[in-house]
Specification:
87 residues; rod-shaped; mainly alpha
């Protein structure tokens, strides 16, 4: 009798676990969809950041070039001032 009750308990437990897994399957699918949506948003943000990085690098290059030109102009102005001072 004890074996029959033990077997019935095991069968009931396995049925409960199987029904719980069936219920969690829809939750797993929802979780998978949410994760995919989050990954898509992250990829979009990454692409936006990469585009912004390229833009910033271009701006930095142009700023460095402008600084070099300004420094060269300042050197020329200083040289002209020194020439004026010598006269």
């Amino acid at each position: 009798m004890k074996r029959i009750v033990a077997i019935m308990s095991v069968i009931a437990l396995s049925c409960t676990l199987m029904s719980a897994c069936a219920c969690f399957q829809s939750d797993c699918q929802k979780c998978t969809e949410l994760c995919q949506a989050a990954l898509d948003k992250a990829k979009t943000a990454e692409q936006t950041c990469a585009d912004s990085l390229k833009t910033c690098q271009g701006a930095a290059t142009r700023a460095e070039s402008a600084a070099r030109r300004a420094e060269a102009a300042a050197d020329r102005a200083e040289a002209a001032l020194k020439m004026q001072m010598k006269k």
